[in-house]
Amino acid sequence: MLRLKTEIRVSAQIRRAHGAGAFAVVLRRGDPDAGAIWVVLRQGQALSRYTEQMAMSGEREWYRDGPFDEAELSLKINRAVDRDPDIWIVEIEDAQGRAFLDGDMPKVETAAEAAATALFRGR
Questions:
Q1: 83: Cα separation from own chain's centroid
Q2: Helix (H, G, I), strand (E, B) or coil at 74
Q3: Which residues contact 15 (CB under 8 A, 6 or more apart)?
Q4: 83: Cβ–Cβ under 8 A, 6 or more apart, which residues?
Q5: How confident is the model at residue 15 (pLDDT cuts 50, 70, 90)?
Q6: ω into 67 cis (within 30 of 0)
Q7: Which of 44, 99, 107, 119 has the fewest CB within 10 Å, making it most exposed?
Q8: 70-105: string of b/e by CB count within 10 Å (b at 16+)?
Q9: What pTM does this model have?
Q10: Record: fold of 6-120
C-alpha cells in the first residue's frame, strides 16, 4: 500500500490548522519519508497528545491521551526522541480543541485493544 511521505502529511496538517485560524508549528522534524508523528494539542491550559498507531484491523488510527502538564509531556517527548530519532512533533493551539488529524479516531475500543493501548501508551 502506498503512503504519503510524513513531511507532506505534516505540511498539510499545518495548512489545515492555519486555514481554520489555529496556531500550528513543527516542534521537531523527523524523517521526511516515514517518521512517526505525535501531535500535541494545546487547548487553553490543557495539553493532550495524539499518537498514530496501527490498529488491530491493520489500518492506522489516532489515539488521544492526556491531560498532561508541561513537564510530564516534555519528558515523554524527550524519551520518544531518544527511542526514535525519526519522530515528528507537531504542536497545535486551538481554543476549539481541533487537532486537524488526517485519519480516523477509533470509535470504541474492545477490552483487548484497551489493554494493548495501555501497554504501549508510555512510548
A1: 16
A2: helix
A3: none
A4: 123
A5: very high
A6: yes
A7: 107
A8: eeebeebbeebeeeeeebbbbbbebeeeebbbeeee
A9: 0.78
A10: hypothetical protein tt1805 (3.40.1530)
